Amino acid sequence: MSGEDDEEARVRSPKDWAGGLPAVGHAMQIAHRQMGAARSVRTLLLVNQKNGFDCPGCAWPEGEHRSPAEFCENGAKAVAEEATTRRVGPEFFAAHPVGDLATRSDYWLGQQGRLTEPMHKPPGSDHYVPISWERAFEIVARELRALGSPDEAVFYTSGRTSNEAAFAYQLFVRRLGTNNLPDCSNMCHESSGSALTETLGIGKGTVSLDDLHRAELIFVVGQNPGTNHPRMLTALERAKRGGARIIAVNPLPEAGLLRFKNPQRPSGLGRGTALADRFLQIRLNGDMALFQALSLLLLDTADRRFVEEHTYGFEAWEKHLRDLDWEKVLAATGLSREELEETARDVRAAGSVVVCWAMGLTQHRNSVATIREVVNFLLLRGNVGRPGAGVCPVRGHSNVQGDRTMGIYEKPSAAFLDALGGEFGFEPPRRHGLDTVDAIRAMRDGSVKVFFGMGGNFVRATPDSDVTEAALRRTRLTVQVSTKLNRSHAVCGEEALILPVLGRTERDEAGYVTVEDSMGLVHASRGRLKPASPHLLSEVAVVCRLARELFGDDPHVPWAEFERDHGAIRDRIARVVPGFEDFNARAPGGFALPNAPRDERRFPTATGRANFTVNELEVLDVPPGRLLLQTVRSHDQYNTTIYGLDDRYRGVKAGRRVVFVHPDDLAERELADGDLVDLVSEWPDGERTAPGFRVIAYPTARGCCAAYFPETNVLVPLDSVAETSNTPTSKSVVIRLVRASPRSPAGG
Ligand SMILES: Nc1nc2c(c(=O)[nH]1)N[C@H]1C(S)=C(S)[C@@H](COP(=O)(O)OP(=O)(O)OC[C@H]3O[C@@H](n4cnc5c(=O)[nH]c(N)nc54)[C@H](O)[C@@H]3O)O[C@H]1N2
Ligand SMILES: Nc1nc2c(c(=O)[nH]1)N[C@H]1C(S)=C(S)[C@@H](COP(=O)(O)OP(=O)(O)OC[C@H]3O[C@@H](n4cnc5c(=O)[nH]c(N)nc54)[C@H](O)[C@@H]3O)O[C@H]1N2
Ligand SMILES: [Mo]
């Protein structure tokens, strides 16, 4: 891709605080650019209000007492991207053949605006041309009918899809006869879900916002909330005012973890609130060693009664821990024994502990085991299922958790399929489907021929970009249900469709939709803005019309009724998914889903108890001269959507092709800040290169470096995945830095 918008990055020293007035100013600047002044104010005042729409940004919960401006800088940017007044219509596609779009950067593509009409790229053509909705559905139905088996199609979901759309979509896919429902979660919190289901019996967190406010000690591990969950800083601030201590565990000194200036409270400006009381600058992937060491130091403080009454496997775990090799612990964490002992003292003094985490824990080879070790650590002192304590995986997309609850999952439980089949009177497929990585392999090998994407940007969010792009190009048909232009429209199958839909901010005639936040609260979301174009359909309507085209008069599912009224879908959800009884009556006010560990200290696992697990500690082998690379988000992006080219808190302006490296690691390589390097990853099947990165000397942990996703996805091998969860290892890629000549094109 050309780096037409990627100027030479300018670098200043990183910030040690987040929020404050610059955050408000920056958000307003982007909102004005996309929407103009009046629309900005009108739109932003509806975010996260009882009669407004759920913020399409992150999944952080709203809390009971909403402020009149219940959004954050990056939520405002997410809204502005969707409510933009810029448009991508047929003229645009006439002027830009697919081959041209494929050379553009993610930033350029996203900045073009909202998609307005269904578009079709016929086989052999290099242009998208307008097509009617009817014709578009005929084409999809024709290609699905032509398959040898329904398993030759995959149906991806990104995490913005509402509960109603997700339920209708998975029902459509299972009526068709496959469980090929990969989703963004496969690349995100799948490791959390795997570890928590096995150990606690629920694949979600066990804390409410209130628990966080009441906690005495909060660990924030592998997470950058100042950028990715800014409203979480308000909760951390409140916990601190109640006397909580906060421990940040991160290879990077992220600004939002250190100090917060609450932009919504005048008293929160000034110097702001210091957040982390302790910053453990851990090496990448050192977390399993950290939690094992802490547990070992705390064994004498076990909550014996809880362990006996509620858990399984304690003795085996304890025995294994006693053999812990301290040399390995120090090597893996890069921390000192004193730091570990002091941290253990903090825990010893705390009556209740919450551990929060995000992608820093989930995207490594041993992620599932690491998260199981976090659970061990909490179980030891009875820190699950009581006020102010528990696990808090902080989810990403605003409804990614709800999508799973609605059955978007390639490995559905028998109980879910029984309920679904019973309700609609058909036999759903039982064989497990393909997840994201397996779907790429299947397209690469030619066994999947149709790709259907409900939102997201599959080509760009996935690893091993060259392999994945070739895989998508090999398919017969790709269908993207989207709001905005992205690279997945340009890197497409032999035939391709773009189906433009309403965003969450826009009015939908069929009524409100619902979402579930990171803490299991379900509530309504009402779009209020006039749709970006009269030709848009809702995601629900796309599914229902396609279903009617494919199944005709379906005796099992009233698709036409579903399309007219989202309430009719909720009536069915209420009968299929536990916890949704009286859904239509309760949705407007919102309600909490049942959570057995939190509500009753009950653990619906295979043993009927909370499980301690034994996890072998292995220190990642980084060969001499190599670095461990993590791929992260800048402050100006939402996953593959690039809002701007700055990363304010880390001091970067006007450029994304940068790599953050410790000054001593640079010196060892005779490199200096400002040098140009290629990043080369090494894997048994060969090397991969991301060319032309400017080096930034940065206070990250030794031996580790960081660069932005998605530019670095090309470096993550498809086969480098987490055990059990199959999540790409986007946070631990072994690379070397190769000096590049300044004149080499900064392509890639
Ligand atoms: N504005 C904005 N908001 C977002 C998103 C966005 O792109 N933009 N994305 C949304 C989505 S889908 C998600 S999943 C979340 C992502 O939220 P985050 O997980 O906060 O996102 P990342 O940028 O991947 O940051 C990972 C953090 O973990 C640290 N880390 C990396 N590896 C390790 C490790 O081995 N150990 C430890 N202890 N720390 C490590 C990194 O230094 C970094 O601080 O945010 C959601 N919210
Ligand atoms: N290297 C590396 N790779 C990663 C990660 C990483 O940390 N490092 N993180 C991973 C994670 S955590 C995630 S969640 C995935 C994200 O993967 P995805 O969810 O697939 O990617 P997004 O960038 O969030 O998708 C953006 C697109 O969604 C569409 N869209 C936005 N809103 C709507 C809507 O309301 N409806 C519809 N139909 N479409 C909409 C727009 O067209 C937009 O271009 O990426 C993963 N990939
Ligand atoms: Mo995510």
Automatic annotation (TrEMBL):
Cite the InterPro entries for this sequence.
Asp_de-COase-like_dom_sf, MopB_CT_YdeP, MoPterin_dinucl-bd_dom, Mopterin_OxRdtase, Mopterin_OxRdtse_a_bac, Prok_molybdopt-oxidoreductase, YdeP_MopB
**Which CDD domains does the record cross-reference, listed alphabetically?**
MopB_CT_ydeP, MopB_ydeP
Q: Where is the Molybdopterin dinucleotide-binding domain?
A: 627-733
Which key words are in the record? Answer: 4Fe-4S, Iron, Iron-sulfur, Metal-binding, Molybdenum, Oxidoreductase
- Which cofactor names does the annotation list? [4Fe-4S] cluster; Mo-bis(molybdopterin guanine dinucleotide)
- Asked whether the UniProt record includes Oxidoreductase among its keywords, one would answer yes
Looking at the record, the residues that make up the Molybdopterin oxidoreductase domain are 114-482
Q: Which domain of life is it from?
A: Bacteria
Where is region (Disordered) located?
1-20
Q: Which PANTHER family match?
A: PROTEIN YDEP (PTHR43105:SF4), RESPIRATORY NITRATE REDUCTASE (PTHR43105)
Q: What family does the entry list? A: Belongs to the prokaryotic molybdopterin-containing oxidoreductase family.
Q: What is this protein's name? A: Molybdopterin-dependent oxidoreductase alpha subunit
